[in-house]
Amino acid sequence: MSAPLVEELIPVPDPVESCARLRGLPYLIFLDSARDPGRLGRYSFLSADPALVVRGKGAHASLLDTRTSTEAPLATHALAAVRELLAPHHTNPIPDLPPFQGGAAGYIAYDWGAVLERLPSPRYDDLAIPDVIFPIYDWVIAWDHLEHRAWLISTGLPDIGEEKSQRCENRLRGILARLASYSLSTEIPRPLREESDAKHEHAPSYPVSDTDLPASLDLRSSFTHRGYLDALTRVREYIIAGDIFQANLSQRFEAPLTESPWALYQRLRAINPAPFAAFLDFGAVTVASASPERFLSLSAARHIEARPVKGTRPRGVYPAHDAALGRALQESVKDRAENLMIVDLMRNDLSRVSLPGSVRVPELFALEHYATVHHLVSTVTGTLESGRDAVDLLAATFPGGSITGAPKVRAMEIIAELEPSRRGVYCGSIGYISVTGVMDTSIVIRTYQAVHGRVYFSAGGGIVADSDPEQEYRETFDKARALIRALTP
User: Fold this and answer.
1) Among candidate residues 451, 476, 472, 344, the one with its CA nearest the CA of residue 109
2) For residue 391, which of 169, 186, 104 has the smallest C-alpha distance?
3) 394-410 confidence digits (pLDDT tens)
4) Is 199 known to be catalytic?
């Protein structure tokens, strides 16, 4: 098997500028560690123009060959197809390079979890986007922000033999030429947006008048204020009845899309830098994310890490106030109890595919600070069993417990009953599975979905028996604050 071609990029190109230079290429993905280079945000990755794209909706999946513009149905589910496509090209990691060295990258929508668990869906599928889009990328620009270095890696996927070697060389030279020659001032024609043939009834939406909004912002929600409080009360009734301990209830906001999603993402990135930020221009949907939360990572040594976020407070207006809010969060009995429930859920999920006795909780109730909120974060680790891979790990744990509740399946049923619309990419995962077998994924929160000329974003929280309805409602606006701010230039 021919080795990938690797060229170090000197001087190190700016990731955002590099992404701008490649905009217009189909299926562009920018996994943008915009914060914390010392740990969670060490690496960023950029790729586009894949030869193959795996797409899934419900239990059905298809494979798009972009070279011939043909799409064929698959006999297996979307992530199993990703595994089959990567298997012939598996390679050992190249030492001292960032972990994604070509392979699959994309998103898994929250709603795909209903396929895994055979659960009902909410009434409305008005976004009408695929549940899974995972292109197979043969080249990637990889940044190591800690070492201040960057590389272009070209694998030649999905070809084999001499054709693979030739593609590997051609793609490397082509991307280098584009990075060197493209003028940022040149207008790039945007790719055609994909439209579904099906007609989808739009979920009801209501003007948001309960918060301090710019007068020019036409913001709507899937709930009225009263409606959200009623749904929250219903969750608490389920808890009292013994159905669940906790459920994550969210409201979906929407507004007209008045500029390019790329401009919106750059503003969100400046307001709310995050270690798991991402920009995906996938035709059917454009995703702009500023997520702080890792869902799962899998290393070459088969080490698994999950970092559930559960517990939020807004940032203060001056240092002493800010410190007091953070301290109150870390000492909150309610928030610690919520966090511990999700830690226990994640321990259970990881134990399905981990070596017996390997699941640990090395960090519990850590306080992390972001631009607009404080978060309570825990870390759960394990060692993946022999014979298992990244797809097995995702199938055993998706969707993440921090955005469902506990017990997970019953919480998901209640979410489907009370939330009027499918969540789409929100509360799903964005990330990569490398040809080397390693993986890293986020929980998709603090995220825009741009579809059909509108921008959608959601915010929610874990509801427990002693939740205060008005406080939980206000917390959704604390979490959405950066997204609301970024809508107004």
Assistant:
1) 451
2) 104
3) 999 999 999 999 999 99
4) no
